[in-house]
Amino acid sequence: MILGVSQWLSDKLGWNVTYIRIAFVVSVLAFGTGLGLYLILWLVKALSK
To answer: Less crowded by CB within 10 Å, the N or C end of the chain?
Structure first.
């Protein structure tokens, strides 16, 4: 939502953006790994343009 990663990822995978956002929130709250994954995907998105 902030950096556009969820929308970009849903376009790439063909999944519903809401499910991806929920997965990121759950992974941040439960495991703490979602933030790191979000930043890595943001870098991939930014470098792929």
So the answer is: C
Dihedral of alpha carbons 29, 9, 48, 3, sign: negative
Residue 6 buriedness (CB in 10 A; 0-12 / 13-18 / 19+): buried
Residue type, 26: V
Residues 33, 35, 39, 41, CA torsion sign:
positive
Q: What is the pTM of this model?
A: 0.77
pLDDT by residue, tens only, the chain of 49 residues = 678 899 999 999 999 999 999 998 898 898 888 888 888 999 999 998 7
